[in-house]
Design brief:
Blueprint: H1 3-9, E1 32-36, H2 43-59, E2 63-67, H3 74-81, E3 89-94, H4 96-99, H5 101-104, E4 115-131, H6 139-148, E5 154-157, H7 163-175, E6 180-183, H8 187-195, E7 201-205, E8 214-220, E9 244-252, H9 257-271, H10 274-282, H11 293-313
Parallel strand pairs: 1-2, 1-3, 5-6, 5-7
Antiparallel strand pairs: 3-9, 4-7, 4-8, 4-9
Helix pairs in contact: 1-11, 2-9, 2-10
Length: 318
Amino acid sequence: MSWRRLMLLVPLLAGPALAPPTAAQPFPDHPVQVINPYGAGSTTDLLTRALATAMQPRLGQPVVVVNRDGAAGGLGTSVAARAAADGYTLLFAPAVVFSVLPVVRPDIGYRAESFMPVCQAFENTMVLAVRTDSPLHSLADLVAAARARPGALTYGHQGVASVPHLAAVAFQQAAGVEFQDVPYRSEPNVVLEVQAGRVDFAALVAGSINNQPLRALAVFSPRRHHLLPEAPTAQEQGYDLSPASFGGLYAPAGTPAPVVARLAEACAAAAADPGYAEAARRSFQPEAYHLGPVAFAARMQAEIAEKARLLAGLRLER
């Protein structure tokens, strides 16, 4: 089934399907598992756990988070894709695991059409960051250092074809310089490596530098981030780049519409819960981060088309 055909099913969630399943088929009647395809301590992990906590009273059952990191999010996503389409195994992930990974890794084990959108719950800004004592203070400094030592500067990221990696690749090509990328299993690992000086800089989700001894060289967004007001945007520094990452909760394709509707209702309430709102604030989320299944599906379709165009023009070889 194509993503477009899945979108045709999503409007059903806005109609009578919003009623809970009948008493003969209660949902949920046992714990729900949410797979986070990234490591413990990452921004995605923080948000997954906050959303699960807030959904639990709305569903009346435990909501358990399971970390299955690896392959830039592809490992956990493929595990979720193989789960039964009954609403008891869900995925909390960025859109990139659907719009990029199946394109660059056709053997990843799933396709975008393997899932249905439940609710968007986050939107992340990308940054390039260095240690606070780094001699690099701007993108101009970074470019000058790269030109002085072609291919010698290293940067860490959370995995090949992740959005932070794509942001760094796009900048590298726009600046006409060469860096050596070093992939890690998760963003906390990247943060530790740049702090220790084992890489020169890092490509990260903005929330990962919160309360860390790191300094942002650039924010990849149209305007300065409200929680990083001192960090100039890439556009301010002459590079018209603003790659972002959004995502949320997904269910395996084929999950019954009443079940997806029940999950979407609980997810919407959880996204507005004070506990989740505080986690969103601490992970540098914008003020508006939630979308329901219809709008989320439409944004996913646009994202898949956009990334297809982007990947056609980028070199991802290492």
